[in-house]
Structure formats: structure tokens, C-alpha cells
Design brief:
Layout lengths: L3 H15 L6 E6 L2 E7 L2 H4 L6 H9 L8 E5 L5 H10 L3 E4 L9 H6 L3 E4 L3 H13 L1 H7 L5
Parallel strand pairs: 3-4, 4-5
Antiparallel strand pairs: 1-2, 1-3
Helix pairs in contact: 6-7
Length: 146
């Protein structure tokens, strides 16, 4: 059975896709409760900074310390989002997959963050379909020239 928090992140990813965006979702959890949700909104908001994790943390607002939180994301965080995890001292990140995008797990781990990669087949399939359907948008999202 899928972790309900990862399912919530997947639901956020699907929401982003339904809005014409990139299907990456994130939730922030404290004490077994979701305190914020977000999804990649680079397309919807015409904002290159609005990755799923950033959107989620913005939606959390000012919560003080993050030392007792867990950040879930359907895709391994990029360096920008990983830097935010490190800056906010979020101790644990659980990701749906890193097959379609390797991200920055070593960077987070080198700063003491526990990173768990679920290698979830639904997350992998969702991103593979998106990358096949919209390679131009995907390359823009990961800032790749190829």
C-alpha cells in the first residue's frame, strides 16, 4: 500500500498536469499531518522558481522550525530545491523517484538530510509519459539545452 503522504504528493502532481503544467507534486508533513501542499507551477505562474517543493514551502508560510518535518516529493529535488531543504534544515526527504531525473541526493545527504527514494512505479511512469509528450517543456524545466 502506498504511503498516504506520497499519494497526496502524486495527487498534487496530477493537479499540476491537469492545469497544463509539469507533473511534480510535494507535501510537507509534521506530526503525521500534512501542513502544506504544492505542485510545480512554472507554466501556470510563468515563474521559473515555482518548483513543487518551493510551492509547497511557500504554501506552508512561516512555520518557524522545520526540524520535525518531512518533505515528500514525487521527483528527486533539483539543486535549487535541495538547497532550500538544507537551508531550512528539513531533516528528511522522501521522493517518489529519481529514475527520470537524478536530482541532488548526494548534496542533501552531505548536509545530513535523510533521503529516501521509493522508486515508485506510478511516479516513474507519470514522468516518463510527460517527458515523451512534452520534451520541450521538460528540458526547459531542468534548464537543459539538449
Amino acid at each position: 500500500m502506498l504511503d498516504p503522504f506520497m499519494q497526496a504528493a502524486i495527487d498534487e502532481a496530477k493537479k499540476g498536469l491537469s492545469e497544463g503544467g509539469i507533473p511534480i507534486g510535494s507535501v510537507l508533513v509534521r506530526d503525521g499531518q500534512i501542513i502544506a501542499r504544492g505542485h510545480n507551477q512554472r507554466v501556470q505562474k510563468d515563474d521559473p522558481m515555482t518548483h513543487a517543493e518551493i510551492d509547497c514551502l511557500r504554501n506552508a508560510g512561516r512555520i518557524g522550525s522545520y526540524k520535525d518535518t518531512v518533505l515528500y516529493s514525487t521527483l528527486m529535488p533539483c539543486y535549487m530545491c535541495a538547497g532550500t531543504v538544507v537551508q531550512f534544515k528539513i531533516p528528511k526527504v522522501i521522493v517518489g523517484e529519481s529514475v527520470t531525473f537524478a536530482g541532488a541526493p548526494a548534496f542533501m545527504r552531505s548536509h545530513g538530510v535523510e533521503v529516501v527514494d521509493l522508486r515508485n512505479e506510478d511516479c516513474i511512469a507519470m514522468m516518463q509519459r510527460f517527458i515523451a509528450d512534452r520534451p520541450d517543456l521538460w528540458m526547459e524545466d531542468i534548464a537543459s539545452e539538449s
